[in-house]
């Protein structure tokens, strides 16, 4: 028997080609010129019950041998999170897929299999693939066209490994940040998930059988983001009106866009498991909304209907009769087939229901062109992790950054600062910045796949700046221009990420931040997390806060915003709690958020000349350094200023009425002074004011002096240029113009 199967598998491709060319006139389902409807009808007329039952099974690749597909007519395989061939390369995936496909084509009717993966932020199971920001970051970017391009790039990488079916996008509307899948949601409002259904169009392309297109999946039907207490797989206790307006709305748009499949949620609606909910699946999804694609279960989800381990005949009957067309069974596929056969033969599952399921599954297989081109399109294999896709991911990271605090204009950071300090457990960690569903189901800290860390992005962005990195913040002192702390959550997925208790930073982060604060250096916090965190108590200690979400493999996109190469443009897709006790907190619920839904600051287009401009907030310098002031509230000063040194400040706006005075706060322990010239547009530009510097008796003994200004109106780049003196002659704290 094994020998015959092996021969059949080896020759399947030739047999299929021969049958298509020689018998297309007699075998309608093999005639690519016939309509899909006619091809499906012809094929189903030839299928035995075993063929039909097999088409309703999807099982994990590790639970089968290729010959099982031939013997048992299994219609679909999947790779669960972290399930990959060895070695985990794109080419190995393609080889694995083709091997399984040959076995499927060795069946008498030569029905190809369809293979699914959770490519939820890029082809995230594959080592070396491009990992895009998780959905919460894309919700912050609020760019449906960008999301469509991400869908297209993901489909190309998925196609290059042979896979035909992607279990994305997740259209859940997350209403409680304790939920471990919050980052899989585009945000707390239906409008965001609805807008981002462009991912469906990107994945499926202009036609499912077009090169580089894959079947998309809208998940999870329905209401999984609204469970009580944010419990994964929990109970969504809302009215039908709210279910429809908030949770069903994004699915309606996905169906309008032609999404090919819908995955059912583990959760319940008002106590009834969705996997047995005939009204919501058959009546609403299929009949009312007109969904004609494949309804697929979640991983072993029918086993959870009765709350007891091991699926039963009653669970099989309930799920199939509720309208589920394909059952995802991780390992016990033989038992499922036996139980389903018994239910059909007894009449408890009508044959009409089996035929409906098969029609839906086979229709998508024909539309995908699997009967004509069943094997991997190797022309796309090289796109996995390609420079073009990584550039797109970097663009997405830039757009997803949300600036939540920016005291005294510390951001954007200057690229010409002499020294920057970087700390935090996620600064140099691809795994942390990618989050769950990356290489492994739960994700993993460390160098789990190629990419650019946030630290590497910072190092690449600066010009001649010494960047010191210490994970724990050890070694920082007051001579650094700023400290960048990259902190937040470590990877998790699904229920392992539920946080029924606190949502605060961990002990390591808090200890690191305390060291940075003690140095007196401005602290810029980059928060890497899958949701808002409880940080209100620490926020006053930080000069700036950027929500980076889970950016994926292209950490340089974070640096693009920190250093001003891209504006801070992201807006919160969720409400940010003042404390965890507010959970759930959502837009319009009357609760006072720390940062409201839609909040996001931007870098000021100009600096107001008539407000205090901190000397340390330059974006260009020559010859100077920063240090901590020792008197209360002084912050940082620029020191070691000598003849010819200069500081540059962008876009200082004097307005239409010229300034007449400038006040300068300085200190000097020198024996002889010099002067500071205020110049416009360049270090050698017009002088509008000159402030004489006299020794004050110490480098931290501060004095303020005011001098006249002439010719300062409109918007200019402002330079402070040092003249004269003997060696270092002054420290500069701040200056402010007046009329």
From TrEMBL:
Keyword Transferase annotated: no
Signal recorded as keyword: yes
Domain spans labelled CBM6: 608-738
Enzymatic class: hydrolase
SMART domains, per database record: CBD_IV
Cleaved signal peptide residues: 1-24
Listed CDD domains: CBM6_xylanase-like
Keywords from the named record: Glycosidase, Hydrolase, Signal
UniProt GO MF annotations: hydrolase activity
Substrates-to-products reaction catalysed: Hydrolysis of terminal, non-reducing beta-D-glucosyl residues with release of beta-D-glucose
Enzyme Commission identifier(s): 3.2.1.21
Family listed: Belongs to the glycosyl hydrolase 3 family.
Designated name of the protein: beta-glucosidase
Species, as recorded: Allokutzneria multivorans
């Amino acid at each position: 028997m094994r020998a015959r199967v092996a021969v059949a598998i080896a020759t399947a491709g030739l047999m299929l080609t021969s049958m298509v060319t020689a018998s297309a006139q007699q075998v309608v389902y093999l005639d690519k010129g016939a309509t899909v409807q006619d091809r499906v009808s012809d094929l189903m007329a030839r299928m035995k019950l075993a063929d039909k039952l097999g088409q309703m099974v999807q099982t994990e690749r590790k639970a089968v041998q290729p010959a099982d597909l031939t013997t048992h007519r299994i219609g679909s395989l999947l790779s669960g999170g972290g399930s990959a061939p060895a070695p985990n390369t794109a080419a190995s995936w393609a080889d694995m897929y083709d091997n399984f496909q040959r076995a499927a084509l060795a069946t008498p009717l030569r029905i190809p299999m369809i293979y699914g993966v959770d490519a939820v932020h890029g082809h995230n199971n594959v080592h070396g693939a491009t990992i895009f920001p998780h959905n919460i970051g894309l919700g912050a970017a609020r760019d449906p066209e960008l999301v469509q391009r991400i869908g297209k790039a993901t489909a190309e990488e998925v196609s290059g490994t042979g896979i035909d079916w992607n279990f994305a996008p997740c259209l859940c509307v997350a209403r409680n940040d304790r939920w471990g899948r919050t980052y899989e949601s585009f945000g707390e409002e239906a409008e965001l998930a609805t807008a981002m259904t462009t991912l469906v169009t990107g994945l499926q392309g202009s036609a499912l059988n077009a090169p580089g297109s894959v079947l998309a999946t809208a998940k999870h039907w329905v209401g999984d983001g609204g469970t009580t207490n944010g419990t994964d797989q929990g109970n969504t206790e809302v009215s039908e009106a709210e279910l429809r307006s908030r949770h069903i709305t994004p699915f309606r748009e996905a169906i309008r866009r032609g999404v090919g499949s819908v995955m059912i949620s583990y959760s319940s609606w008002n106590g009834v498991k969705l996997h047995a909910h005939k009204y919501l699946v058959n009546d609403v999804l299929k009949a009312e909304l007109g969904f004609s694609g494949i309804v697929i279960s979640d991983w072993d989800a029918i086993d959870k209907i009765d709350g007891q381990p091991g699926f039963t005949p009653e669970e099989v009957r309930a799920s199939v009769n509720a309208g589920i067309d394909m059952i995802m069974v991780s390992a016990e596929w033989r038992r499922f087939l036996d139980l389903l056969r018994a239910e059909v033969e007894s009449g408890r599952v009508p044959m009409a229901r089996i035929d409906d399921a098969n029609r839906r599954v086979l229709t998508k297989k024909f539309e995908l062109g699997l009967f004509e081109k069943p094997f991997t399109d190797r022309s796309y294999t090289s796109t996995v992790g390609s420079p073009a896709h990584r550039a797109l991911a970097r663009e997405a990271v830039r757009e997803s950054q949300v600036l939540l605090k920016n005291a005294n204009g510390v951001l954007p950071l200057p690229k010409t600062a002499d020294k920057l300090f970087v700390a935090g457990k996620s600064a140099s960690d691809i795994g942390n910045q990618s989050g769950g569903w990356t290489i492994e189901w739960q994700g993993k800290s460390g160098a789990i796949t190629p990419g650019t860390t946030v630290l590497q992005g910072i190092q690449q962005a600066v010009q001649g700046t010494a960047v010191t990195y210490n994970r724990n913040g050890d070694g920082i002192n007051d001579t650094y221009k700023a400290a960048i702390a990259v902190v937040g959550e470590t990877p998790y997925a699904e229920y392992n990420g539920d946080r029924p208790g606190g949502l605060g930073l961990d002990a390591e982060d808090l200890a690191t931040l305390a060291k940075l604060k003690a140095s007196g250096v401005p602290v810029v916090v980059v928060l890497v997390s899958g949701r808002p965190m409880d940080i209100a108590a620490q926020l006053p200690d930080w000069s700036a806060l950027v929500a980076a979400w889970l950016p994926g493999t292209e950490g340089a996109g974070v640096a693009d915003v920190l250093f001003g190469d891209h504006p801070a443009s992201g807006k919160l897709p969720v409400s940010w709690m003042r404390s965890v006790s507010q959970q759930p907190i959502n837009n319009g619920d009357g609760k006072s958020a720390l940062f409201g839904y839609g909040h996001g600051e931007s870098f000021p287009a100009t600096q107001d000349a008539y407000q205090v401009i901190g000397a340390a907030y330059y974006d260009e310098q020559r010859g100077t350094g920063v240090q901590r002031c020792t008197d209360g509230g002084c912050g940082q000063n620029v020191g070691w200023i000598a003849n010819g040194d200069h500081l540059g400040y962008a876009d200082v706006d004097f307005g239409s009425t010229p300034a007449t005075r400038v006040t300068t706060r300085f200190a000097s322990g020198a024996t002889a002074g010099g002067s500071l010239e205020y110049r416009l547009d360049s270090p050698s530009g017009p002088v509008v004011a000159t402030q004489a510097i006299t020794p004050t008796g110490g480098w931290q003994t501060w004095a303020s002096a005011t001098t006249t200004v002439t010719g300062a109106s409109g918007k200019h780049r402002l330079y402070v240029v040092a003249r004269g003196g003997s060696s270092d002659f002054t420290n500069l704290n701040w200056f402010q113009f007046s009329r």
